[in-house]
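Hi R.,

Here are the chain sequences for the assembly we discussed:
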Amino acid sequence: MNLREQIETGVKGARSLWTQALDVDRLEIALVLTVGLLLVHGGTSWIFTVPMTMLCLAGFVLRPLLLNSSYWLILSAVVGFANFRNWHSVDDQKFLATYWCIAVYCSLLTPDPRGAASGQARWLVGLCMVFSVAWKVISPDYLSGQFLKYELLTDGRFGWIARAFAGVPASSLHSNALRLAEMRAFDSAAVAAPLLAGPRLGMVAQVMTWWTIGIEALTALAFLAPARVFLSRWRHSLLAILVLTTCAAASVPGFGWLLLVMGIAIAPQEDRRTRGIYFACFIFLHVFLLPLRNL
Amino acid sequence: MRDRFNLAFAVLLLAAVAAVQLARARLHSQSPWQGGGFGMFSTADSPDGRFTRCILSGTSGEFRVPVPASLQSAATQLEVAPTEAGLLDLGHVLLSLEWVRDESSRSPYRVLGREEPPVPAERMLEVRKVRVEVWRTRLSADGTKLEAELIRSCEVEP
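And here is the predicted structure of the full complex:
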């Protein structure tokens, strides 16, 4: 078999796998991805990470467990307790993952777990976006663009945007990081330190500010609106765009992953196209966040 | 009815926790980034932008010291939610420690370990007051500099 034939066989195999994945039950796919998310991004302290890892691995190996309500009750208890104990250090994504685990448990108690999980996922995504938008509106430094300017200049996760779009040299970002560290040093009495910016910083910060709040507000409305409202038809497209832009830009793959899982749970079983888009977003998010941008 | 409650439980929990977090952020200066209120990426007031300063006052002046490693977790929690009680607790613990002059690091004094042999009295700091401060950083209005803003502080005396 020559190279061309080998490539063709590989492509055929990948296509077949893709088609099979699209046909798998949406709830089962969502639950497998949830367990995967908890394995990769669910850790807090080792006391909780060890039992959680064992539970997740058991779910992977013994698939029927994933559709067992008691399994999700135990998993919810472990994840919830871990996040409750470490509330001051865990991200919003871990809180949302806990609510999703509880929602799965409650759904599996009903005669129609798929419909119940879909309804709860819709509300969880919608409400999480409502609170996210509310915080952005009431924060004193968000709408003015000051927050994103600050992030672009001092947060390493936004460094590639600052360099590529805002024209901030890498040396300036390094210098800003040093100044922030000096100000935070235990022996510092400083209350101000100069920052080095770039020529398009203000414009980039404004675009990011309004894009983020706009897409989050639209997503909230689309998910909370009843099915007869026009915007609700754009739920999945808006969620995919939100994940591809904001989650990728802010380097929060765990949050993006969880939103995609809930999107998969919401999309009807016959809607293979939407499920395919979510799978593609999932792959893109992880490829995009490989540290290749820093080469 | 029970089914309805089951299906609403996770959603209600999300709303309740987020509402409590919103209230705590307003009332106790808790960082909007933590606590399950979905305030991440909404303000520069993140835990990474907060820091603690500990100042010991002795007979020979004031000395800035780092938070001892054993109290780091408490200090991190305090930075996220700087309550009056938490600041006082940390201040009292710092006051109860024995501080010895440290020539080997940037810090003028360090905590004397329990297993360490006794050191001469002139190397020890007689702490008369401890001040604990929690600060946050933000961008200045003109966007040209970092500014530190004091959120809360307390003083503890023996």
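Chain A touches chain B through 61 residues (CB under 8 Å). Strands of chain A lie at 192-194.

Let me know if anything looks off.

Best,
T.
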